Amino acid sequence: MLFAAQVCPGQVTISGRVVDENNVPLAAAEVTLKRAGPAPNTRVTLTTDPTGTFHAAPQQPGAYLVSVEHVDFFSLVDRPVDLHDGANEMVLTMNHVRNTSESVDVRAQPSPIDIEQTDGERRLSGPQIFEVPYPSTHELRNALPLMPGVIKGPGGDLHFDGGAERQTEYMLDGFNISDPLTGAFRTHLSVEAVRSLDSPSGRYSPEIGKGSSGALAIHTESGDDTWRYSGTNFIPGIDTGHGTRVGAYTPRVNFSGPLIKGRVWFSDSVDANYNQLYVPGLPSGQNTRYSYGASNLIHLQANLKPGNVLSANFLANFDVTPNSGLGVLDPLPTTIDLRNREFFFSARDQVYLTRGTLLEYGFADFRTFFRTIPQGQAFYQITPNGRQGNYYVDSILKSERRQFLANLYLPAFHWAGSHQLKAGTDVDRLDYSQNTRRTGFNDIGLTGAALRQVVFAGSGVLERPSLEVSSYVLDNWKIKPNLVVQAGVRQDWDELVRSISFSPRIAFSYAPFGWKNTKLTGGYAMVYDADAPQLFSRPQDQYSLTTLYNPDGTERIGPSVTAFIIGNNLRMSRYQNYSLGFEQLLPARVLLGVNLLSRRGHNGLSYVNVLNPNAPPSPDLVGLYHTTQFAGIYQLANVRHDVYDSAEIRLHQPFGKRYEWFASYTRSRAASSEVLDITVNQPTSITDNVGRLPWDSPNRFLSWGYLPTPFQNWAMAYLFEDRTGFPFSAIDQIGQVVGPPNSQRFPNYLNLNLHLEWTTHLLGHRFALRGGLNNITDHSNWTVVNNTIGSPQFLNFYGTDGRHFVARIRFLGKT
């Protein structure tokens, strides 16, 4: 599908397309055309449009050299081409970087300064995900904190730029794969299936609108005309910490190749996992928790005809975690069994209509099942020294999202520069249902007497549907070769708040004085959070009855109801992001980057206590709950205000054929006016809810790399992280927060992982064998604290892995 321009006699033009090995056009590829030989140097650099097309008009015919660079593809360097008078046409094919025997020794190195890129993009390539020794490398979630600005919180949840996990939109090949119920990222996905991860920081395109702290775009592997296969960790791992045992068995296998050569391809990534985790501080036989699961992602791609590409994904996974929550303060009877199943299907069709026009549309269906099972029916006891009895929540949660999206790329036109318009729409139907049964719990005081009892009443069976409709328009305006502005607006509406929100976005990229190795970026974005059905379902759920007791066991107050209600005239939670960035390419291809970000959240949705102790509750509530005694009446309202500020500096250097190192330092703060979220499961009262968020870590230094050694076929991989400990709250004997929330902190976290890898050939196949130590300094990175004031163990810390040995074997196919 080539395009030729009408030209005058003697005029030289070139029209071409950049495609991958499956003839899929590549947008944003950088094409450089320069004169060959001793002739005066003539250089033209341009970027392909969404259809992979580029046009150039060299001054004169002759011999030229063409180079093409694109992230995740091997660069084409100085390909010779002869240009004659008139129209010239060409097609340039690029090959994906693949971590297989064919390409393991070569790493693509595109230009790190891209004037077309306006957002503060964070990226992890597939090889980086494989090579950096982060803990539990079979789990994709664990790789995400390799990006600055992304941190794993105290509960294992992910936080992008200071936001909650639900405030990020997670996309699998362009479709939303965030949990329809909570907005979190629960999906288990084989790391072998991932080609790259992208996450913008601060400057968001109007295409992104389901999360105020940005998006994570997961790009998966696709097949081509070459049969490929690889495997990892097909031998169980041995854990030497606290005795020798099978610590983990996480085999992964990937197959890809053609179904019909030149037309239809597939990629299948299968992942299984079995993990045993030792918990220090518990009796023998009760100090190990385990989990098992599996996932399978099948990706299909078919070129129906030139200019029409159809692709589809099917993902199925399940995870079972018996004894979840086991810890030194949470013995075996208090744990719960978790069962999770997910099924995701998507299909997308890309149609190239006319010159420079591309239409893509698709559909996805994402279904989840989440089961929580306690170990028994014994009443749950919360004591100053830990928990006893059986957990009090038994639930089945089901959710589904059906998503339709469409995007239209219009032909570029010129007016005070070059404009590339894009518009799109997204319609989502969400369904949520639950069946939850709660018993209750006691808060035990320092003397061993019960000071508070909470039981639950009402039906925990409910359904809550929702509909979301969004649209956007975006103009990519290249004013000059060294100045690009992206401006657009997004519209969002959902059935839960029933209000329309408009969010303007603008960002720029500027190379001062045409300097190729220097770039300034900045922008402003108004972003709205997607509303989770679970947040709006609390008034339909069970309610709690709280009874307070005197130390002698006599009843003091109660039973009192904690009720949840929905306020009036609600709006979507709004955030405003201001950002500024700087990039400078230093000698030896060292890239220096600086990024400043300020996020301000307004009108955030949160439940706040509106109970007036000096006035009786409304007759409607008295009639609904058949009581005049209320411990709290929590109303959903636009009262939340969040603050996140960060200053980040980073250095990155790729070198040699496959090596690189990265280092960053981030200074930040994350605070909110509504730190603690009052839920049905945790009814409590708090007078001062302003403070640092639980994942706030003001100082964080991060570095990782894959480096050569003096020995052939040997390499060293490392990960180093040093950060401020997370904050936590002090509580009294009945679980009430004492003082400002999150006024205490864990000690500093420090972790150094150091691994050696040997690549070898055996029986005509290629293998990579790796071994090393995690937490090589044996630093006490505590995860649990006794936070009950008055307890003899108050501020005692627990839960550290210590130093341990890790091994991995990767099978990379035939040589």
Cα Rg: 28 Å
Strand percentage, roughly? over 45%
Known CATH architecture of the largest domain: Beta Barrel
Assign an overall shape. globular
What is the CATH topology assignment of the largest domain? Answer: Maltoporin, Chain A
Structural class: mainly beta
Would you state the CATH class of the largest domain?
Mainly Beta
Helix content: under 10%
Biggest β-sheet, characterized? 22 strands, antiparallel, barrel
Outline of the structure:
By secondary structure, the protein is mostly beta strands. It has two domains: 12-94, Sandwich (Immunoglobulin-like), CATH 2.60.40; 120-814, Beta Barrel (Maltoporin, Chain A), CATH 2.40.170.20. Helix content is 2%, strand content 56%.
Topology readout:
Blueprint: E1 12-20, E2 30-35, E3 43-47, E4 53-56, E5 62-69, E6 76-83, E7 86-94, E8 120-125, H1 126-131, E9 150-152, E10 158-160, E11 169-172, E12 175-176, E13 194-201, E14 215-220, E15 228-232, E16 237-239, E17 245-249, E18 252-260, E19 264-278, E20 288-305, E21 308-324, E22 336-352, E23 358-374, E24 380-383, E25 386-388, E26 393-409, E27 413-414, E28 418-438, E29 440-444, E30 450-457, E31 461-463, E32 466-480, E33 483-494, E34 500-510, E35 518-528, H2 533-536, E36 543-549, E37 555-566, E38 574-586, E39 590-609, H3 619-625, E40 630-655, E41 659-672, E42 691-692, E43 699-708, E44 714-723, E45 727-728, E46 730-731, E47 737-738, E48 744-745, E49 749-762, E50 765-774, E51 784-785, E52 797-798, E53 804-814
Parallel strand pairs: 1-7, 11-14, 24-29, 37-40
Antiparallel strand pairs: 1-4, 2-3, 2-5, 5-6, 8-13, 9-10, 11-12, 13-14, 15-18, 15-53, 16-17, 17-19, 18-19, 19-20, 20-21, 21-22, 22-23, 23-26, 24-25, 26-28, 27-28, 28-31, 28-32, 29-30, 30-36, 32-33, 33-34, 34-35, 35-38, 36-37, 38-39, 39-40, 40-41, 41-42, 41-43, 43-44, 44-49, 45-48, 46-47, 49-50, ...
